[in-house]
Write a structure and sequence with these properties.
The protein is of the alpha+beta class and 316 residues long. Helix content is 53%, strand content 13%. It folds into 2 domains: 3-92 and 101-167, Butyryl-CoA Dehydrogenase, subunit A, domain 3, CATH 1.20.140.160; 174-295, Nuclear Transport Factor 2, Chain: A, CATH 3.10.450. The chain has helices at residues 3-26, 29-48, 58-82, 102-112, 114-120, 125-136, 141-148, 152-167, 174-193, 196-202, 227-235, 238-241, 286-291, and strands spanning 203-211, 222-225, 244-249, 252-257, 265-271, 277-283, 294-295. Strands 2-1-6-5-4-3-7 form a 7-stranded mixed sheet, sandwiched between helices. β5 and β6 (277-283) form a beta hairpin. The longest helix is centred in the N-terminal third of the chain and has 25 residues, at 58-82. The termini are far apart.
Length: 316
């Protein structure tokens, strides 16, 4: 076995970790794989360079390279978003990356959590970088700050700000949150399972469903009333229910539909005193979706760190 073959074997040992880091950074399987492949090319060039310093910690070196590549991708994405609309090509709401594997990406999105991917997509590149590396992969702030060329204090602030977004700034706590979670989870389970009777049992007899014009299929807003009518409408959306997850929506429990982690529809629920669903608002208009504060209910095992007080924004 020559040196390049041995290096390739060592790289493959780190590939799953590198891919996990990259996917959480950029939220796209094809871009994550691009970053990992680019890291391999840089590694092979570095090892072949007789003047390059010896790599003592291969895993740490590769994680740093992949993270920096992903940060560049995120910053480039941000710059494209700032371009005038007439200068940018029109893209569909749900992006499909060329060369990607939709089934595999769906599995990855589900493993990370649809709500988590939605919230990560709202963070600035710097916030996402600091939060993913520290809170998800336990990289010390001192190492992250060196990658970002910022102070450790500034890096902590970025992660703290991101953490508040992930948790949701305003959360309905205690028994009310738990009660709402049970009802919303039951609604999602019944929708996915096609259980009409279970849906009707969760709905107030005079329940009202309102959907904006972007939900479709009609070009106008929709208003439905009555438990049986609303239950039938929910069953008609069973395909959407498969890419739906409970999340905090403006501090209360709702549902987010996010194929491959891209937010497309939100369901907000109003409950009566008896716990029955009295209103359902279905939101799909992009302008309205951007105004919603989405938070993660089922947080992964993140470090239990205090949130820092808000500080002025630092320039990118």
């Amino acid at each position: 076995m020559d040196e390049l073959d041995f290096l390739s074997l060592r790289f493959e040992e780190h590939r799953p970790h590198l891919r996990a880091v990259a996917y959480r950074m950029v939220g796209s399987l094809s871009e994550a794989d691009d970053a990992v492949q680019d890291a391999w090319l840089r590694l092979s060039r570095t090892v072949a360079d007789p003047e390059a310093e010896e790599i003592e910690n291969l895993g740490g070196w590769l994680t740093t390279v992949v993270a920096r590549l992903c940060l560049n991708m995120l910053r480039s994405r941000d710059h494209r978003a700032e371009d005038p609309l007439e200068a940018r090509p029109v893209e569909p709401v749900v992006r499909r990356e060329d060369g990607g594997d939709p089934e595999q990406e769906a599995l990855l999105a589900d493993s990370v959590g649809l709500a988590m991917l939605v919230v990560l997509d709202t963070l600035s590149p710097a916030e996402r970088f600091a939060f993913v590396l520290h809170d998800m992969f336990a990289v010390p702030f001192e190492e992250i700050s060196a990658m970002m060329e910022r102070t450790p204090e500034a890096t902590r602030q970025l992660a703290s700000r991101a953490r508040r977004r992930v948790k949701g700034a305003t959360i309905a706590r205690g028994a009310d949150l738990n009660r709402r979670r049970m009802v919303v989870d039951a609604y999602l389970t019944a929708s996915r399972g096609g259980d009409f009777d279970a849906l009707v049992a969760l709905l107030d007899p005079d329940v009202v469903l309102r959907a904006d014009a972007a939900v479709g299929p009609s070009p106008a807003p929709i208003r439905l009333s009555g438990a049986q009518v609303v239950a039938k409408a929910a069953l008609a959306s069973v395909d959407r229910a498969r890419t739906t997850q409970a999340a905090l929506v403006d501090g209360s429990v709702g549902l987010v539909m996010a194929p491959l982690g891209r937010l497309t529809v939100v369901l907000a629920f109003t409950l009566g005193a008896d716990g029955a669903i009295t209103e359902i608002e279905v939101i799909a208009e992009p302008e309205r979706l951007r105004t919603l504060e989405i938070g993660v209910i089922d947080l992964p095992d993140l470090p239990d760190l205090p949130d820092l007080p808000e500080q002025p924004e630092q320039p990118e």
